[in-house]
């Protein structure tokens, strides 16, 4: 069993409030995994993310153009479905690589992290 390598990293993100002001935040995030996150489906995930982002931008234009609310809701549902499918691919990859590695090395934290991530993903 190998020792865990923990690294702290600042994770930055931003969000826009209803009043139009953007706020940026940085949070320290500790990595307790000793493996790299390289997966066979990375390019497919990135391609699907690009398509979902483009689709979401098209939905934004629909709202800006005053399109019918029913049409907008249907397109939002399509974007949500695309994002969920991206999450499923990432989850499958994670289980196939990271979790298999975690089980082999006795990394209980990786299993706990997966459990937490699944709970947030399925909400």
Characterize the structure shown.
The chain contains three helices and two strands; from the N terminus they run ββααα. By secondary structure, it is an alpha+beta fold. The longest helix has 37 residues, at 69-105. It is elongated, with a radius of gyration of 18 Å. The model is unreliable at 1-15 and 25-33 (pLDDT under 50).
Short structural description:
It contains three helices and two strands; from the N terminus they run ββααα. It has helices at 42-64, 69-105, 108-121; strands at 7-16, 22-31.
The helical percent reads 55-70%
The Rg value, from CA coordinates, equals: 18 Å
Query: Strand pairing plus helix content: what structural class?
Result: alpha+beta
Number of helices, counting only DSSP H or I runs of 4 residues or more? 3
Segments where pLDDT lies below 50 for 5+ residues?
A: 1-15, 25-33
Strand content: 15-25%
Sheet bearing the most strands, described? 2 strands, antiparallel
- What strand line-up does the widest sheet have? 1-2
The rough form would be described as elongated
Helix-strand blueprint:
Layout: E1 7-16, E2 22-31, H1 42-64, H2 69-105, H3 108-121
Helix pairs in contact: 1-2, 2-3
